[in-house]
Amino acid sequence: MKLEVDLSATVEQQLSRVATRVWQQAMKEEFRKLYFPEWMDLETTAKYLNVSRSNLSKFIKELDFPVSVIAGTKRCNKYKVNEWMEQFEL
Hints:
CATH architecture: Orthogonal Bundle
Low-confidence stretches: none
Distance between the termini: 27 Å
Number of helices: 4
Number of strands: 3
Largest sheet: 3 strands, antiparallel
């Protein structure tokens, strides 16, 4: 199926700007994720997920969020966090 649409120059420019902005945001997010360490403390994990520290605590207490505890120090593995997040994809 092929759909051709003639757009005014103004609409085409607006769509181009929106598409560029969406692409830049997506790339910024992916780039940001690459620079987080494999093992993160809870503060860094909250930043990685772009959630508040209190929401992260809620995830840990109520939603079986993956946390490793070594001598009282809590760390989260970036890859396990990603796997955990995948269960919530729509």
